[in-house]
Specification:
By secondary structure, this protein is an alpha+beta fold. Helix content is about 55%, strand content about 10%. It is elongated, with a radius of gyration of 30 Å. The N terminus and C terminus are likely disordered.
Amino acid sequence: MERGLIYYKKRRRKDPFKISEIQTRLADIDAWSGEARASTILNGLGFDTHKQKLACSEFSGGWRMRVALAAVLFSKPDLLLLDEPSNYLDLEGTIWLQAYISKYPSTIILISHDRALLNNSVNSILHLENKELHLYSGNYESFAKTRAARLAHKQAEAKKQVLRRQHLQSYIDRFRYKADKAKQAQSRLKMLAKMEPISISSEATLKSLISHNQRNYHLLL
C-alpha cells in the first residue's frame, strides 16, 4: 500500500494537468514577482537594502510593527483592515502608505486619526455619533464640511422643535381644564408625548473609515 502511495505521488508530480493547475495558481498570486514586490513594500516603509537583509529579531518594537504592516500589504487580501497604520511610520513612510492605499484595488477598512492620511487615502467615511452610524462620501475634509452642514440643519430643526413644544405646552396648560377645549388640549398632549427630542453632539468622534476603489462599492459591516 505504501509503495502504491509513493507511485501515485510520483505520477502526480508528472501530471501535466496538475502542473498546469499549480502554475495557474502561482500566476494568480503573482508569485514570480513576489521578491520584487516585497522589496518595494519594505523600501516604502523605510527598510533600505541593508535592513531588508536583517533578521526580524534584530529590530526594535516599532520597526517590527513596520515588518508586520509590510507582511499584511504583501498578502494583498480582498479585505484589508488597517488600525492606525501610520503610528510607527515617519513622514516619508506615511506619504508612501497614502499613495499605496489610494491605489489599492480592493476593499480597505482604515481606522485612523491621521487627518493627512484620511484626506489623501479614503473616499468614504463611516462616522459613529450618538450611537448612530452615518456614511459620508469623500475624504476627511469633505466629511468635516458635510457634517458641519448637517449639524447646522439639525440645530435649526432642534430650535424649531423647542418652540413647537413650548407652543403645545402653553396651549395644554391654558385649555386642558376647559370643557370646550379639553379635546383639543388632549390631542396636543398626545402630540407632545410622541415628539422625540432632537439630540445634538458638539464633538466629532471619528471611529471608522472606509476606503474603496472607484470601480467597486464596498460596505462596512
